[in-house]
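Folding problem:
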Amino acid sequence: MDDNSTAARNRRLVIDGFTRFAAGDTEVLRTLLHEDFVEHSPGNPSGRDAFLAFVAAAPVARARLDLKRVVADEEHVVVHYCMTTDEDPRGTAVIDVWRLADGLIVEHWDVVQPVPDEEQVPHGMF
């Protein structure tokens, strides 16, 4: 991937935002999300301000996020990470799919799965 390609720029934008969010900066979403952001996860609101308020109050805002991989093309960035808390040290495997346009995130999908016991996943979740 060319470092100046749209895919590379989108990848850097999402990784920077992920890193800042994981460090506790939920307001970074205000600079990343389009005003008319569309959310596809059941129960999560669409719209930048509504989504920001929702996420700031959600467990993810206080969890430890361990980024495992990032895949990007010209329009999408996919992040795969482990989300853990003191109450759930085994954690949750998360895949976020972000669609970007003109340097802003305009759409989001996710897949969330509790990390099972190691013996249930002989090759690991990550």
The first helix runs from residue 6 to 22.
